[in-house]
Amino acid sequence: MSYRTAHPLPPVTLDDVRGAQKMLSGVARMTAMEGSRHLSGLVGAPVHFKCENLQRTGSFKLRGAYVRIAGLLPEERAAGVVAASAGNHAQGVALASSLLGVHSTVFMPSGAPLPKVAATMHYGAEVRTHGTVVDETLAAAQEYAAETGAVFIHPFDHPDIIAGQGTVGLEILEQCPEVRTIVVGIGGGGLAAGIAVAVKALRPDVRIVGVQAAGAAAYPPSLAAGRPVSFENPATMADGIKVGRPGDVPFRIIGDLVDEIRTVSEDALSSALLLCLERAKLVVEPAGASPVAAIMSEPGAFEGPVVALLSGGNVDPLLMQRILRHGMAANGRYLAVTLRLTDRPGALATLLGVLSVVDANVLDVSHVRTDPRLGLTEVEVELHLETKGPEHCAEVNSALRRAGYTVID
Question: Average pLDDT of the chain?
């Protein structure tokens, strides 16, 4: 579906993005563009990854943060800056401030992953924890700004932030001049808006597709309503695009310049992250893998050459472990089955023998005897198996049933 609005010209121009690019020279890297054979085969045309997961601080956020802070007046710099973030924006603001000699205070929720907190402190920010969700943290940061005079650095809703993020679009056109479609994840919208400003000014024929997690998709209803609409209780593993309301500034730009918004499921996100790790050897966070999820979900919908923007790679190792297991299950490569058998010597060994015949690798076994649901001579066994795909999962279940086991769905 295509969305267009009748708003006036956006407040960010190609000249703004080009100015930001000059400002970022020697600060932000021109990140690599890598081809994906697997996705190219699915699409039937070249697919490339724009690897902002390899940017300094692990995401594109440094670009906009640096441009915003560099543009402050001397008296504003002297007052310092403040931001609220659970991860990528925090690190971008921290490093940008350090490079510019500006004191930064970053509010983070109490549940923020420790590696992200440590990285933010390492880049030079004073970290304060407040609240359990980002909305509470955001309120605390804005209150701090009002009390101290520090400049609040919004993660996406400011023209300087958008211009900085738009430099990614200029790099894409330079590295892949034949591009026909750019696919980018959308949270608040700063990155997609910036890319749209740069790319549409130079190549209006290039199609720009935004991607949101289905559990946090505020843009489709907002664009349909013609104004930003809050998405109640957003829920997704992709915390980088888990934003409940579009930003006012990027919303107008996206409504005018972005061709399509797609949504992806949690299964698709985890499968995309797994593909990036296994096939491309790239560590990508769920938000950064959202363009890959969209392409995998409907490869025929994208005209090539396609550039999928991997926007970040900051993922907590414990979360990565859970997501990879989820991705393996979504791809039919991980199977959990619960069944009941007679509690007698050798029963478990016999069961494992059945699994061995169908070449299912046992990862974990849970053996329960004391459950009121079980009969006197019954035992419940939960098995976690590594499998080779959906057909192999079906083969395992069939083998268990043929052997007389009761599989509990």
Answer: 89
* Tokens 């579906």, located at residue: 1
Q: Please give the Cα distance from 252 to 193 (Å, whole number).
A: 9
How far, in Å, CA of 312 to CA of 307, rounded? Answer: 15
The pLDDT tens digits for 66-83 are 999 999 999 999 999 999
Dump strand ranges (E) for 223-302: 260-264
List the Cα angle 362/280/161 in 5-degree steps: 120
Q: Using omega within 30 degrees of 0 as the cis cutoff, is the peptide bond preceding 305 cis?
A: yes
| pTM confidence score | 0.83
Q: Please list, in sequence order, all residues whose beta carbon lies within 8 angstroms of the beta carbon of residue 248, skipping any fewer than 6 positions away.
A: 157, 228
CB atoms within 10 A of CB 14: 17
Using one digit for the tens of pLDDT, what is the confidence trace for 152-200?
999 999 999 999 999 999 999 999 999 999 999 999 999 999 999 999 9
- What is the rounded CA–CA span in Å between residue 286 and residue 81? 28
Which residues are 353's β-sheet partners? none
Q: Tell me, what amino acid is at 127? A: V
Q: CB neighbours of 276 closer than 8 A, spacing ≥ 6?
A: 49, 282, 283, 284, 289, 292, 310
Q: Which amino acid would we find at residue 205?
A: D
Cα separation values, 165 from 147, 218, 337, 375, 407, Å:
29, 20, 46, 62, 52
Could you tell me the sign of the dihedral formed by the alpha carbons of 87, 88, 90, 94, in that order?
positive
pLDDT digits (tens, 9 = 90+) for 191-214: 999 999 999 999 999 999 999 999
pLDDT at 4 over 60: no
> Are the C-beta atoms of residues 287 and 312 closer than 8 Å to each other?
yes
Which residues touch 218 (CB under 8 Å, ≥6 apart)?
A: 212, 228, 229, 230, 231, 234, 243, 244, 245, 246
Tokens of 315: 């993922």
Burial 338-349 (b: 16+ CB within 10 A, else e): ebbbebeeeeee
**DSSP labels for 105-132?**
EEEE-TTS-HHHHHHHHHTTPEEEE--S
Residues involved in catalysis: 61, 311
